[in-house]
Amino acid sequence: MLSAQPPNVEGALGTVKRTIRDGQRASEMMTRLRALFSKRAVTADAVDLVEAANDVIELLRAELRKKRIVLRLETADNLPTAIGDRVQLQQVVLNLLLNAMEAMNGIDDRSRQMLVKIERDDGDHVRLAVTDSGEGIAPQHADRLFDAFFTTKREGLGIGLSVSRCIIERHGGRLWATSNERFGATFSFSIPCRAERMAAADGSADKGLQLRSDIQQIVSDP
């Protein structure tokens, strides 16, 4: 705009104002999300993580085919049920799958492979890991992956991983990422099978409301 002759000063100022406004809105949105999570207790229900993950995978089947991604699901035998809010946990799985899909968008020199693995972790935890064959994690980005509004993508607000970590920590678990030896990255979370472990992390044994509609409203508020 400013390089035009004559310079479009009014247009440039408008762009600056929109950028500032969008930044303020994003900051306010994250503040409200954090407040929401801090006030609401997590619903402590028995969740079959394999079944929950399968439901999310089925929702993405068409998109996976469109992007030429081959997804494989591996599950251990006799897995215990996890404890938590099914909808929130499915939101995390969805975020991790979408993140893996986006990481493989520009991959054309090798097959696009995704592995979802669910197994027991440390006795009283269940772990779900999503491995992709994408570009991997750049060293300079490793410490910022879960920061709110950090993104290397052209589109999106960069809150998916941050919100996912918040959800998992509220379930008494942890979410982390590692680079693969050859290609891509693996994002994993581990959550308790015992309700008392989650209740201790949550600070309350009371059942909370599901957050999906609340989060959608916060994101869509002007």
From TrEMBL:
<keyword id="KW-0597">Phosphoprotein</keyword>
<dbReference type="GO" id="GO:0000155">
    <property type="term" value="F:phosphorelay sensor kinase activity"/>
</dbReference>
<dbReference type="InterPro" id="IPR003594">
    <property type="entry name" value="HATPase_dom"/>
</dbReference>
<dbReference type="Pfam" id="PF02518">
    <property type="entry name" value="HATPase_c"/>
</dbReference>
<feature type="domain" description="Histidine kinase">
    <location>
        <begin position="1"/>
        <end position="195"/>
    </location>
</feature>
<protein>
    <recommendedName>
        <fullName>histidine kinase</fullName>
        <ecNumber>2.7.13.3</ecNumber>
    </recommendedName>
</protein>
<dbReference type="InterPro" id="IPR036890">
    <property type="entry name" value="HATPase_C_sf"/>
</dbReference>
<dbReference type="InterPro" id="IPR004358">
    <property type="entry name" value="Sig_transdc_His_kin-like_C"/>
</dbReference>
<dbReference type="InterPro" id="IPR005467">
    <property type="entry name" value="His_kinase_dom"/>
</dbReference>
